Amino acid sequence: MQVEVSRDVFRLAQVFTISRGSRTEAKVLTVRISDGNHQGWGECVPYARYDETLESVEAEIAGLPAEFTRQSLMDLLPAGAARNAVDCALWDLECKRAGKRAWELAGLPVPGPEITAYTLSLDTPEAMQAQAAANAYRPLLKIKLGTPDDMPRLEAVRAGAPKSKIIVDANEGWSAEVYADLAPHLVRLGVELVEQPLPAGEDDALIGMDRPVPVCADESCHDRASLPALKGKYDVVNIKLDKTGGLTEALALREAALAEGYKIMVGCMVGSSLAMAPATLLAQGAMVTDLDGPLLLAEDRDNPLIFDDAGVHPPVATLWG
Question: What is the DSSP letter of 264?
């Protein structure tokens, strides 16, 4: 097999800010795998939070042997961005070889559209209220928070979008004290889920705490090996391909998490439609779908995902799978 890796940059429609910083573009790696007759491709977004860079992920992929399969890949690379792009490229290659869609190969029902959250960037309360008002027609808004002074932001977003469902992502930015203080207000303001309120290394503090709103593990949950440490802390797990290391592990994680009683959120990094495409299979029937990456971009891949009133649609075969 021939493996090619390229870097692509997609401009964002506007500055995107979370508690860890801001960005104006999405830098991704595109992996193409060819067997001489067919070519599959996949995308990953290296994430500094997990000590990943474009260079380190490229090096991981360059270290692969000349021949490997999706199954052997699980042992060759750890969960993370590098394995994700390669795994998803292999899925696409298998689809092209078989002349079938990815959900057929995975033994899944034909997927349909799923309502996706739309993310509001962290900003001043006034700016976030304006963001919320401009997107108040959307059924589900996700608010980026994660500071000790988030209450005015919550109030402002609810005022700007009084009818939208709201979920909150603290990106590990709260302390246990801040979360405990905010929790009753989350209920009052109709927040339906709070994502990763505490740092992953400090989330033992959630054990025994009241969770009036479902709490979702993001940075605390990467793959199936993460599940034992989540007990008593979380109600929902956020499955992201760049954390699981591809669709193969993501499907296994979803099955294992559901068996243990967790609800499912399917999330994403800020990437193109190619990065989101495999995740639309995971999102079927999820409690929350958060695959709005392409909506945050000023430019996208050819044959991009379709977003409409029904939600985000599965990819056409010319995009992926």
Answer: E
Distance CA 169, CA 145 (A): 6
- pLDDT (tens, 9 = 90+) of the chain, 321 residues, equals 899 999 999 999 887 877 667 888 999 999 999 999 999 999 999 999 999 999 999 999 999 999 999 999 999 999 999 999 999 999 999 999 999 999 999 999 999 999 999 999 889 999 999 999 999 999 999 999 888 889 999 999 999 999 999 999 999 999 999 999 998 999 999 999 999 999 999 999 999 998 999 999 999 999 999 999 999 999 999 999 999 999 999 999 999 999 999 999 999 999 999 999 999 999 999 999 999 999 999 999 999 999 999 999 999 999 999
Task: Identify the H or E element spanning 33.
Answer: strand 21-34
Cα 194–Cα 195–Cα 199 angle in degrees, nearest 5: 120
The pTM is what? 0.95
The per-residue DSSP string of 59-78 comes to HHHHTS-S---HHHHHHHS-
For residue 36, give Cα distances in angstroms to 30, 62, 102, 233, 250. 18, 19, 20, 48, 28
Distance CA 110, CA 284 (A): 10
Q: Which element (helix H / strand E) includes 57?
A: helix 54-62
Closest CA to 83 of 225, 269, 245: 245
Strands 140-144 and 118-120: parallel
